[in-house]
């Protein structure tokens, strides 16, 4: 397959699932004629028509609730939230309804719904367009939280999400949309919910997800030059959390760092750290290190953002300290 | 909108005549039975709480029965309904089995939601009762989306979303009013204006009954007001609206009713209205008593027989429900996810 950009991979996944299943519909702000503010849905209107690609009013709660209702009656809607920050307007529908219908109804309903949203920083969009809210969703029973870090995962994980019979929060990285390209792995279908090893190594385990995986790999490259082999594990899903992959790596390395774009305090990195402390205590040769965003809004300019969101330098520095143990 | 809004707070004989002919009388008796079922079940639930045999919260729709029963009388079995925290009447009127409702409130496995939902989470797909929703107006977009999906997949089923006057203040209500029109969802939104959003008088927010329908009419949606003390009028109006919705356009019905009971079992409503407000209103406006009086003029025995049958039915359903099994511990963690892989992980 030809090399594609991350945004194109997302679009290719939408096209593939829409072609395969008529119950897949795309809804969201500016998704039809405009093709999405990040061009992800470009061309879908022409190919699939306006009864499958639906421009919505600027009504996140209403649209998500509507899509939940449609999903519970057998449709497979894919809702695009323009920036992940805007999903906060729809949290009641997601958390109180979409994530709970199945449970509350004793299994009478399923909600095969995908909510796609570009999150994170790196595009100078300022504090209300740059948050990393994944920890919040990972906390909610009933949801799947997907965070693809690369082109191939963006494609296959989205296809997996759309086929899922459960609601999936699909967090894309807008920083990666046009900056990252690559090949889409040739597979016959999506694989499971497992993590992947982004870079093998035997000295330190580095667990990350989404946009930070790239920085972890770069930091690992720096440390490799210094003789420290870091194994970078790309979780791909924050829930379900692939603890088996973390454990397998940690048993070999004895050292664990968790790197998140999300705010470190009360974030998913703390969950991984606590899990490792409880389940892999005897394998640990040093403190579990968290490297996450400061508990500060994400500022506009790169110079300021780099003070808040983990940079390759900061990650490498923390890994160096950990490697000494 | 052609009707003049009647204030359901003030006593007045607003009742239209009974439907004519034997078929009309049969329908009026069916409406009477439907309201009697709702009243009897809810009174029984109150009693169970008083006796400590049920726990948690309960929101009574006493006095509002005509809205639920009148609207649902205009629906077919395949039509869908979403409801509110005050939704027992809607559930029963849509055909949810009374025993399943009781069992749910007793927390039993045989409850419609397996005993894990309780009073505010009745769900019964076979009856078309998609569910209550404890978040005010939270179920409205569900109904709109469900109706839209059903229409796309063929057939002409519709959905009714019940909300209250309190729910009309929610943003998602206004978003859904717009979306339902924009995406042509065949749904009927029924706003039961019961005069009080918890302690907030509806007229302080919206003005006199009928004002909510006028606001909606201003958005371009077909909207009407009906006096919810008259179940016959509600059913007639609902039939007109349902026909319009079934043809493919959403509509809005404001139903003037009154919340006789406190907001919930634990609500000290004497802090915001006279203690006698509920009972006084009921004494003059009770939709059940008023229909009863009119029906008795035709055939007293028939009404008395319905009362006796319903009372026996309620007692038997409550007994069976209470005697049913409690869910096993493992049930607490089931049905979080549909996918077996994810469910096993949960």
How would the blueprint of this fold be written?
The complex is a heterodimer of chains A (325) and B (346).
Chain A lengths: L3 E2 H15 L3 E5 L15 H5 L4 E3 L4 H13 L3 E5 L10 H8 L2 H4 L9 E6 L14 H5 L5 E3 L4 H13 L4 E6 L7 E2 L13 E4 L4 E5 L3 H14 L4 E5 L2 E3 L3 H11 L2 E8 L4 H12 L9 E5 L8 H7 L3 H12 L2
Parallel strand pairs in A: 2-3, 2-4, 4-5, 5-7, 6-7, 10-11, 10-13, 13-14
Antiparallel strand pairs in A: 1-8, 6-12, 9-11
Chain B lengths: L20 H30 L14 H8 L7 E3 L5 H7 L3 H8 L23 E3 L8 H13 L6 E6 L6 H12 L4 E7 L2 E2 L2 E2 H5 L4 H7 L4 E6 L3 H16 L4 E6 L20 H9 L1 H37 L16 H6 L1
Parallel strand pairs in B: 1-2, 1-3, 3-4, 4-8, 7-8
Antiparallel strand pairs in B: 5-6
Short description:
The complex is a heterodimer of chains A (325) and B (346). Chain A has helices at residues 6-20, 44-48, 60-72, 91-98, 101-104, 134-138, 151-163, 212-225, 243-253, 268-279, 302-308, 312-323, and strands at residues 4-5, 24-28, 53-55, 76-80, 114-119, 144-146, 168-173, 181-182, 196-199, 204-208, 230-234, 237-239, 256-263, 289-293.
């Amino acid at each position: 397959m030809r090399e594609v950009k991350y945004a194109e991979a997302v679009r290719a996944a939408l096209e593939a699932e829409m072609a395969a299943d008529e119950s897949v519909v795309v809804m969201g702000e500016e998704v039809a004629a405009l093709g999405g503010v990040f061009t992800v849905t470009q061309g879908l209107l022409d190919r699939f028509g306006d009864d499958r690609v639906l421009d919505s009013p600027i009504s996140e709660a209403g649209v998500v609730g509507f899509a939940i209702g449609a999903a519970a009656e057998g449709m497979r809607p894919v809702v695009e939230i323009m920036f992940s920050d805007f999903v906060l307007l729809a949290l009641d529908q997601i958390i109180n309804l979409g994530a709970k219908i199945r449970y509350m109804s004793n299994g009478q309903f399923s909600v095969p719904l995908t909510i796609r949203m570009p999150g994170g920083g790196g595009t100078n969009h300022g504090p209300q367009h740059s948050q990393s809210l994944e920890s919040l969703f990972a906390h909610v029973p009933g949801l799947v939280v997907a965070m693809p870090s690369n082109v191939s995962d963006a494609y296959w994980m989205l296809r997996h999400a759309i086929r899922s019979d459960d609601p999936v929060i699909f967090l894309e990285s807008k920083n990666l949309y046009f900056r990252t390209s690559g090949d889409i792995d040739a597979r016959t279908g999506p694989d499971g919910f497992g993590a992947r090893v982004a870079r093998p190594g035997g000295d330190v385990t580095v667990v990350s997800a989404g946009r930070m995986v790239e920085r972890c790999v770069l930091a690992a490259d720096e440390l490799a030059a210094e003789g420290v082999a870091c194994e970078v594990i790309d979780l791909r899903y924050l829930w379900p959390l692939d603890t088996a992959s973390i454990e397998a790596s940690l048993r070999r390395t004895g050292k664990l760092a968790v790197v998140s774009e999300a705010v470190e305090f009360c974030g998913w990195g703390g969950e991984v750290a606590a899990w490792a402390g409880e389940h892999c205590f005897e394998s640990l040769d040093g403190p579990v290190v968290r490297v996450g965003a400061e508990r500060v809004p994400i500022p506009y300019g790169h110079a300021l953002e780099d003070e808040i969101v983990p940079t390759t330098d900061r990650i490498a520095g923390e890994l160096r300290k950990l490697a000494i143990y | 909108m052609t009707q003049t809004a009647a204030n359901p707070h003030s006593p007045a004989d607003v009742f239209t005549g009974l439907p004519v002919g034997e078929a009309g009388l049969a329908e009026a008796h069916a409406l009477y039975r439907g309201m009697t079922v709702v009243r009897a079940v809810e009174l029984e639930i109150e009693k169970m709480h008083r006796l400590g045999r049920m726990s948690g919260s309960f929101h009574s729709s006493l006095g509002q029965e005509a809205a639920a029963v009148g609207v649902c009388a205009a629906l077919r079995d395949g039509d869908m309904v979403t409801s509110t925290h005050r939704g027992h009447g809607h559930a029963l009127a849509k055909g949810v089995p009374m025993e399943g409702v009781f069992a749910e409130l007793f927390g039993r496995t045989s409850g419609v939601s397996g005993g894990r939902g309780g009073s505010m989470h009745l769900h019964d797909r076979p009856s078309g009762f998609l569910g209550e929703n404890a978040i005010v107006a939270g179920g409205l977009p569900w109904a709109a989306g469900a109706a839209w999906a059903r229409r796309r997949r063929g057939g002409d089923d519709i959905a009714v979303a019940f909300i209250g006057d309190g729910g009309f203040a929610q943003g998602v209500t206004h978003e859904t009013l717009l979306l339902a029109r924009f995406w042509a969802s065949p749904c009927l939104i029924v706003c039961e204006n019961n005069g009080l959003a918890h302690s907030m008088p509806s007229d302080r927010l919206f003005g006199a009954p009928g004002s909510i329908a006028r606001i909606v009419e201003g958005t371009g949606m077909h909207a009407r007001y009906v006096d919810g003390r008259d179940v016959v009028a509600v059913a007639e109006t609902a039939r007109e609206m349902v026909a319009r919705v079934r043809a493919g356009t959403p509509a809005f019905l404001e139903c003037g009713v009154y919340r006789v009971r406190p907001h919930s079992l634990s609500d000290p409503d004497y802090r915001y209205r006279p203690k006698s407000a509920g009972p006084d209103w009921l004494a003059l406006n009770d939709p059940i008593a008023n229909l009863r009086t009119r029906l008795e003029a035709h055939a007293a025995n028939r009404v008395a027989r319905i009362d006796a049958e319903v009372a026996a039915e309620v007692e038997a359903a409550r007994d069976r429900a209470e005697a049913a099994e409690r869910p096993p511990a493992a049930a607490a963690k089931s049905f979080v996810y549909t996918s077996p892989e994810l469910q096993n992980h949960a």
